[in-house]
Write a structure and sequence with these properties.
145 residues, alpha+beta, Nuclear Transport Factor 2, Chain: A, 6-stranded mixed sheet, 32% strand
Amino acid sequence: MFRFKYLLLPALLSLCLGASDAAAKVECEMLDGSVPELEKIKAVFAQGNYKFFFELTDKFASEELPETETIIDKLFEAFPSGFRYCTTMYSKMESPKLVNQITFFESPSGDGIFVAWSAFLYRDQWAILKYVVSTEFGEVLWAIN
């Protein structure tokens, strides 16, 4: 399961600031130089609020992707209560305005999923240019290259 998407973050970031206490309880290990705004997006995903996460991402698409509901259903089926832990495995600032990251999310059952993205700073706000959500590590390796 994977996904490529363009996303502008102003609305997402303002909504993430009001994320529930459940998101704050997810332990997410960061690397040095992490971007606080992007860490808030990880918290939304980690709490298992997939519909909210994808509603926000699809909001900025030229048209809604037909597979969004299928992806959300599969995530709810595989990880119904979200995740108990996440760790940023890779984070590289390509420049002061561009970062690539890979994060692993572990569910209460011990299964996991990877999220990779490229984000850049545009007009003082972070924007995700591309992201992939996958259970296969090989599908997120593009973020390292």
